[in-house]
């Protein structure tokens, strides 16, 4: 064994203690560190030949790189839809590495049985029935890709061909219909060979909405003259957190043949809150469902879950058995269900968080985040230089400048807000108007954070008025 490696083995408990000390220090100061760093990262150094040892690596990391890491796990990082990591999930994540299990199959370890228990808990959390089976993947994009891969196989079944054997060409052109799909749907369609341009955007409801017009969807399906299709329903759009009427869409199956995939990446968490659960009414009727976990469950990257009612088709797509051995039977190992073969036990951090806080604890996070978004919405509406672009439906505040919300001025607002180090919001264009989104999904965020975010927005928009851009 390399002497430095042997030395680290001897000193492993001390090394873990040092890493723990750094992590504890960083997490204790997370709320007060700048939310983002806009300065450039240091230049690269060469590959070390003689290693520094783990303690040396820790020192160099703390010195050179840690100072530029963002506070995205903290309470006022409101860009995209970004959760943090609950205390229990961090502990679970550390142990995932310490145990270093391969979650591809059950041979010789109980690890995959733990993943199955976690999936069953999540299914219950989101109000899905036992007909849905699930597996962990790396994120909502991967989850959407798996769901649409099963949809693709289902289209083959309807048309009497096997896509997993004969290839996607056997299908001919495929119709994918959606109201306000997330950008990752186009990516998934590209990966799956279905084609980004086969995604047809169906009109949305009038009146500042992102939810699909179900009558328009009905008409679009009628236009297919019986050709089976894929419908991607959106349960929580990223701009304004609008929800498709899932029940009404599912009811269209009485007259049309389609696979219903629901992208509920963060919107599925509405199911935890009695006041908001109606937004995902009908989720169980989906043929496949995507839910992100590194967002609103507040577990570390990278974790999401995918659910489907057709595990048989999922196995047809993803099975890794030799053809002459036939398809796996009974409860298939995860190796036969997702794109990976070897895989990290990413269920463990979620298991820890669900065991530690239960559905009540996670409901409290969702409800608090929604209340804080409402509070910021009220605050923004009361600021002269700002206005809301849409009502606050769940956990996102979509806002812009009251006067001349040009791209240039809104970009300048975003830069000024980020430069304050107080908060971070990401840009969007909504109903043709450039704006910013503040998304609440972090377990740490409190009322005082909303006050600081609002103050940063007021200051930044005030600076704009004194020196207008463009
Ligand atoms: C975040 C998000 C995705 C993509 O999630 P990743 O975890 O970044 O892959 C897909 N759909 C919706 C609605 C999202 O909010």
UniProtKB/TrEMBL annotation:
Record key words, sorted: Decarboxylase, Lyase, Pyridoxal phosphate
Taxonomic path: Bacteria, Bacillati, Actinomycetota, Actinomycetes, Kitasatosporales
Spans through the membrane: none
Organism this protein belongs to: Streptomyces resistomycificus
Any GO molecular function: aromatic-L-amino-acid decarboxylase activity
Stored SUPFAM superfamilies: PLP-dependent transferases
Protein name (record): Amino acid decarboxylase
The UniProt record lists the keyword Cell wall biogenesis/degradation: no
UniProt modified residues of type N6-(pyridoxal phosphate)lysine: 295
Any Gene Ontology biological process: carboxylic acid metabolic process
């Amino acid at each position: 064994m390399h002497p430095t490696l042997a030395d680290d083995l001897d000193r492993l408990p001390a090394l873990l203690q040092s890493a723990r000390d750094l992590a504890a220090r960083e997490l204790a100061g997370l709320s007060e560190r700048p939310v983002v760093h806009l300065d450039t990262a240091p230049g690269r150094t060469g590959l070390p030949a003689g290693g520094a040892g783990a303690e040396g690596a820790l020192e160099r990391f703390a010195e050179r790189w840690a100072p530029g890491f963002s506070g995205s796990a903290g309470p006022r990082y409101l860009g995209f839809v970004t959760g943090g990591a609950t205390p229990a999930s961090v502990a679970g994540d550390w142990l995932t590495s310490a145990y270093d299990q391969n979650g591809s199959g059950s041979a010789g370890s109980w690890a995959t049985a733990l993943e199955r228990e976690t999936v069953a808990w999540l299914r219950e959390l989101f109000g899905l029935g036992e007909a849905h089976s699930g597996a962990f993947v790396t994120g909502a994009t991967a989850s959407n890709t798996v769901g649409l891969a099963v949809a693709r196989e289902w289209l083959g079944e309807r048309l009497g061909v096997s896509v997993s054997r004969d290839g996607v060409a056997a299908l001919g052109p495929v119709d994918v219909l959606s109201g306000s799909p997330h950008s990752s749907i186009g990516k998934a369609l590209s990966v799956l060979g279905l084609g980004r341009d086969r995604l047809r955007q169906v009109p949305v409801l009038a009146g500042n909405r992102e939810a699909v017009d179900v009558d328009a969807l009905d008409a679009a399906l009628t236009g297919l003259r019986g050709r089976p299709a894929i419908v991607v329903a959106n349960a929580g759009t990223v701009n304004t957190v609008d929800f498709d009427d899932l029940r009404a869409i599912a009811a269209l199956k009485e007259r049309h043949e389609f696979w219903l995939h629901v992208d509920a990446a963060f919107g599925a968490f509405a199911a935890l809150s009695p006041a908001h659960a109606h937004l995902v009414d009908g989720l169980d009727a989906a043929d496949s469902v995507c839910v992100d976990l590194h967002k609103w469950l507040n577990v570390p990257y990278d974790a999401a879950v995918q659910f489907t009612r057709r595990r048989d088709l999922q196995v047809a797509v993803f099975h890794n058995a030799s053809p002459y051995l036939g398809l796996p039977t009974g409860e298939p190992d995860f190796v036969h269900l997702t794109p990976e073969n070897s895989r990290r036990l990413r269920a463990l951090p979620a298991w820890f968080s669900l065991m530690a806080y239960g559905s009540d604890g996670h409901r409290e996070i969702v409800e608090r985040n929604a209340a804080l978004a409402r509070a910021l919405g009220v605050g923004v509406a009361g600021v002269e230089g700002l206005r809301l672009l849409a009502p606050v439906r769940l956990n996102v505040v979509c806002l812009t400048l009251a006067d001349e919300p040009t791209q240039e001025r809104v970009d300048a607002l975003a830069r000024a807000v980020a430069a304050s180090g107080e908060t971070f919001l990401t840009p969007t264009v909504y109903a043709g108007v450039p704006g910013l989104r503040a998304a609440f999904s972090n377990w740490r965020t409190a009322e005082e954070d909303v006050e600081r975010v609002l103050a940063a927005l007021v200051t930044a928009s005030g600076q704009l008025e004194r020196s207008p851009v463009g």
